[in-house]
Every structure is written in structure tokens, then in C-alpha cells.
Amino acid sequence: MKRAFLRNGLIAVLAFAGLGLMAAAHAADEAPDALIQRLSADVMESIKNDKAIRAGDMARVVALVELRIMPNVNFQRMTASAVGPAWRQATPLQQKRLQEEFKTLLVRTYAGALAQVTDQTITVRPLRGSQEDKEVLVRTEIKGGGESIQLDYRLEKTPDQGAGWRIYNLNVLGVWLVETYRSQFAQEINAKGVDGLIASLTERNKANSKKG
Question: Do the strands 135-143 and 149-157 form a parallel or antiparallel pair, or are they unpaired?
């Protein structure tokens, strides 16, 4: 399952990237499933038309992820969930460092996968729930390049006016992103504490940067 999660990471990024192209005013009153459907199609078209991304220009891809994708993620919630109980015991400075390094890790991961996206298509399944729900699960299916891929989102309605829906977890083939990292981070924290996890993330990010 872990191999499948890593192998299909680029498929997940395709749909996830779509969240970054929204206009905030429009997104505020748009249903979460309709939002993902529309924006996934938009990002697919953008990737097809961007020769630099298709050529593997990582600086351009990283910039795209930073500017378009990450602002639409509840990143503090995602980091806190991934770190687990140790987040509440961490100092404000440690929390800040954890969020920075975790964000860098995901940006590089998403950027590397986004650069490989080609001709996948996305189908959004009917949304279950009511209009009053503040958190929803949106299920999609990615087709292209062989097997079909299950991709699910957990989104929350933000209290800020005009902010719309934001993603806080992602599921590929039954593997939730936050839970996957939580298991890894727990081992680091148990062995070396919060500072040890920060150091480990920092080294991992440096290594990823050198790889390009």
C-alpha cells in the first residue's frame, strides 16, 4: 500500500493542485465538489499549456505550488494533526519551525510530482451530506496512464468571510496523508523529541533540495 501511495503521488497532486487556481470570491459560495471538479479541469489545462512545467523547470513548479496551492490548505491544522499529541506540548517557536519544515517537505514533494503530470482526467463522485456541513469528504477518481486511482479530500468551511473551503487531509488508495506522516513523526519524537523531529525534517529538506 505504501508503494502504491508513493507511486501514485503525482496523480494526487494533479487534483490537489486544482485547489490553487480559485478566485476567493467565487470559491466562497461554491460547493466543495463543484469546486474540485472545476479547478481540477483548470489545472490540467494549465499544465498542458505550460511548457516550462512540462519540461521539468522545478523552480517554476515550486513557485506554482507555493503561490497557488498552499494558500488553500489549512496548514496549521495539517501540521498539528501530523505531529500528534506532541504538538500541544511544543513551544510556539517549535510549532513555527515544525510548520515551516513540514510545508517545505510537502511543497517539494508536490512540485516534483506535479512536474510529471500528463494526461490524467478526474471524475468527482456525488457529494454526501447537507449544505449546513462545515466539514465534508469529497471522493474522486483519477483515470489515465493505466489503473484508476482513488483520491479523496477532507475539506472544511473556513469561518473567514470569502475564504471558502480549505483542504486539511488527502487520501490516495486508502492511505491518508496526515496519518502516514503521523506514524513517521511519532517514531522521530519518541526517539529524539520535538527538536529531533525538526532536525530530521530540516535534513530531509536539504537533501531534497540538493536532488533538485
Answer: antiparallel
Our CA angle for 189, 195, 201, nearest 5°, is 80
- Measured CA to CA in angstroms, residue 17 lies from 31, 49, 89, 153 at distances of 17, 15, 32, 12
| H helix or E strand, kind and range, residue 140 | strand 135-143
CATH architecture of 2-211: Roll (3.10)
Q: Give 192's pLDDT tier (boundaries 50, 70, 90).
A: very high
Domain boundaries, the chain: 2-211
The residue written with cell numbers 498542458 in the block is: 48
How is residue 194 written as a grid cell? 520535538
Q: What is the DSSP-derived secondary structure letter of residue 116?
A: T
CA distance 183 to 173: 17
Surface-to-core class of residue 119, CB atoms within 10 Å of its CB (0-12 exposed, 13-18 middle, 19+ buried):
exposed
> Do 22 and 166 touch, CB atoms closer than 8 A?
no
DSSP state of 73: B
| Reported pTM | 0.76
For 5, the grid coordinates are 501511495
* Residue pLDDT, tens place only, 73-85: 788 999 999 999 9
Pure H helices in the chain: 2-7, 9-18, 24-27, 32-49, 51-54, 58-64, 75-83, 86-89, 92-114, 177-211
